[in-house]
Design brief:
alpha/beta; Rossmann fold; 2 domains; four-stranded parallel sheet; 9 helices; 14% strand; globular; transport; Lipoprotein_PsaA-like; ZnuA-like; Zinc ABC transporter substrate-binding protein
């Protein structure tokens, strides 16, 4: 896809508000929570699309030029594929990395089928209350750089967001501490690595090197499922659930849909915890 020429200079939306672009919907939630009515926040990767493999539309490439800043999530496939090209096309845009300060999970470089996580960085950093506080802090700092005049406004909203994140974390811990709560789960695409680390859980991926699992791998998952007493298999809307259903039928586990890419970050994190609880 050829990059289209983007307008230069700071633009505004139809209501006269300044514009910020983020990569994905959970980021839009954090950014809007702090920015309030001072900025319009746009996501490059729309609802229902995967930030691992998404390609922007020509219209998005043009409208990106209306933004004065881009807040990246850090290491997701879309950014690795597109950030250099996007910024070369819109040199006036300030870029802020909201992953700065996150305690990253590193593995050896690994493939996820149609995308690759270079450098072994597990990119799903937003699925963690601890990381969400860091992302929120970096977002607050970015907004004060862009609009120092309204720093007090952003600080009040940032403090409120942090309080909600901390409350969510407390609710998750309380839920997972209930007698009989699951300590292990199966998931098709391993998007909950940071969530699992936060709460001492064991995440088991159906994907085998990022690809469809072999019959031998499926059998191994079934054996592990029985050994560890796994009762939950999480499936995401952008992935095929057939293999999850095969495992569920053979082991008596329950298939539970989740959406780690949801705008409703707090609700989604609590849904994951409640699914693992014996309640």
């Amino acid at each position: 896809m050829l990059l289209l020429s983007a307008c230069s200079g700071r633009g505004k939306d139809s209501t006269g508000k300044r514009i910020i672009t983020v990569t994905m919907e959970p980021q839009r939630y954090f950014t809007e929570a702090i920015a309030g009515d001072k900025f319009t926040v746009r996501s490059m990767v729309p609802k229902g699309s995967s930030p691992e493999t998404y390609d922007p539309t020509p219209q998005q490439l043009v409208s990106l030029g209306e933004s004065e800043a881009y807040l990246r999530i850090g290491y997701i496939g879309f950014e690795r594929s597109w950030m250099d090209r996007l910024m070369n096309n819109t040199p006036h845009i300030q870029v802020f990395d909201t992953s700065k300060g996150v305690d990253l999970i590193f593995e050896s470089a690994f493939d996820h089928g149609d995308h690759r996580h270079e450098g072994g960085v597990e990119p799903h950093i937003w699925n963690s209350a601890a990381n969400a506080l860091i992302i929120a802090g970096n977002t607050f700092k970015a907004l004060t750089v862009l609009d120092k005049e309204n720093e007090a406004y952003y600080k009040a909203r940032y403090d409120s967001l942090c309080q909600r994140i901390e409350q969510t974390d407390s609710l998750i811990r309380r839920t997972l501490s209930a007698p009989g709560a699951d300590r292990a789960f199966i998931i098709y695409h391993p998007a909950l690595s940071y969530f699992a680390r936060d709460y001492g859980l064991h995440q088991i991926s159906i994907e085998e090197g990022g690809k469809e699992p072999s019959p031998a791998h499926l059998k191994g998952l079934m054996d592990l499922c029985r050994k560890e007493g796994v009762r939950i298999i999480f499936v995401q809307p952008e992935f095929d659930r057939r293999n999850a259903e095969i495992i569920a039928r053979q082991t008596g586990t329950r298939v539970v849909p989740i959406n780690p890419l949801s705008y409703d970050w707090e609700e989604e994190m609590l849904n994951v915890a409640k699914s693992l609880s014996a309640e």
